[in-house]
Design brief:
The protein is of the alpha+beta class. It is globular and about 70 Å long. β7 and β8 form a beta hairpin. It has twelve helices and 41 strands.
Length: about 725
Amino acid sequence: MRRVALLCVASVLSACMERVPAPPASTVSPRLEIEALIDITHPSEPVWSPESARVAFVVDRAGVANLYVAGAAGADPGARALTDYTEGGVGATFWSADGTSVYFMRDGDLWTVPAAGGAADAVWSTPDAETGTVASRDVTRVAFVRPAAAGGGVELRTRSLADGRETVLARDAESIGAISWSPDGAHLAYAAGARAIRHDQTPAYSGAKIIYTVTERVPGQHFVVSAGGGTPVPIGSPGGGTLRWVDAERLVLDRQSPDFKSRTVQILDRRGAGVRVVHEETDDKFWSIPGGAAPAALPSPDGRWIALLSDRDGWDHLYVIPVDGGEATQLTRGSFEVWRPAWSPDSTRIAFDANEPDRPGTRHLGVVSVSADPAGAAAPMITSGRGTHTAPQWSPDGTRLVYQGTTPQHPADLFVVPADAGASAVRLSRSLPAAIDDGRYVEPEFVRYPGPDGQLVPGWLFVPPGLDRTRTHPAIVWIHGDGVNQGYDGWHVQRNYAVYYSFHQYLLERGYVVFAPDYRGSIGYGRAWRQGVYMDVGGQDARDAWMAADYLRTLGYVDMDRVGVWGLSYGGFFTLIAMTDQPTLFRAGVNVAGVVDYAMYYEDPYHGGWTRSRIGTPEENPEVYRRASPLSNVGRLARPLLTLHGTADVNVPYLHSVRLVDELLRQGKGELTTFMSYPGEFHYFTRAHVLRDAWTRVAAFFEAHLRQGRAATDAPGP
């Protein structure tokens, strides 16, 4: 759960889409089917070639990742697949120094493939799986972690890509990770000593042969070691945080306190000679900028500035601090949230993505210039229109940006745009399969409705085109997960939630109305809305979610006897609250890996700090924890409930659903309970056979209870 008036499609994205031919009409299916949803891919992890002419990227289809390359100017016929794996896939991608080949990790080994196409070859193949592979900036060497040959533990090694010579730089009995090269390639920074402690959480009724564990993660120590060998030097104090090189001699460490209330940014000397704090901030409630916003301190390539995000004025905005000392200068201002900053190679500009005032579901790219006196710097937006444009990355020559973009009509694809306002973009990928027409999707309408305390709750309404509004129809309330997430003006930008967006389009084609609330705690609306859950998890935020049904009641064309509710993770938690706090409000509910009791979540060391930052401890706030325990109220369940959960889930451990089902049976609710577990599946369903079963199961469940199971006096279905 850790860490969210209709216009035409944006002119920029329209221009992008015109450069990629549409699928032949004869291949388009007349009806959206689940099998086609599985074929929707998710391009991500773009990497520029050294000469700024091409982009390599990874395309994921149902958990299988392959490597592609595309020309950045749009002159090529389209993206070309460099690998064609049918299971597993590629990771840790980088270009060769001359741009003729692309390296990638697969199954713990390093591979290379010609950028022009051809067979992939293993650079090395070892019995042990190497991890953490990162190339030096001149791409002559790689650093990685390998299990130690003797005595246990792991080793930090470097390897020459020219002759294969390896050097052992460090050893640790527990772990090594977070490896980074200094700008001059003379040193490496890394973290060592972090360890995982497993704790048994097996309930007595489960049986002695089935064991449930939770994991306590203990942070380690940062070190710097010479790339030529020598004694590693500890820098800073033990603990986590994001560490980056400022220049060849200094590093910046951005760290939050375990209680999420304070943040410090420190400059560290690579020799361990000292620590200098350059920025501090505290929050009486909790640090709430999501990790996906990339808020951590980001040094400029020339080592003069540190860019970071802060919400000190109530909104997430971009600031810069001189490395040598001085106050933070705010670069962006307004009622919107700035995320994912990226320095240009010449250190004169910062690209970012941001939503718009009163349009929280859009995101567009902006570029701000940073001069000797950055106060008052202009920050023009370079993309516009509907949809979301996120995560800009500069080309090595500093002229263009590659980014991920979605609209109401297409899932995430990769685009390249010149770093100037008003320029046209080039589309690099096509994530929709040929069987799906990218003009068929229902576009969301942004609305607001009153919450339990009168505050207006934002939400997204999807209505099937041509719906007969003189009759009533079934509806489904979808509650997003993570807490700190949101709905967008179109396709969700994350793969984990894009699969749900596509499934909702499947339901819309079958006549369901869909509504997605952005309850308090959601991102996109500023700090006050995010922190609205403070000391009230499962309270007003949960009411925000289920009160979406009150909004549906005002529409007139929704049959309130045929409204279902479902959600993933935090959304599953709210689904359980809705089904027990308001037992007859929803006809049926689907809980996907939801938290069933926050006291149980607090007991999990991996999530304990996160939980404590929001609602304290069970001893301090027993009433808050009582509200945050749908498990204690399942005796009130009166309508059918389907629960889905992967056995390998660590975000919300599988034991939550096991306890839920056991308590439902104990309360005599077995006839209302259906449970499906997915062996080996993580929190976010990934593999094709799991998606196929889950979506088929959910579709049949809603069909049975929102259509076939309605009372004889209900209005006819659509």
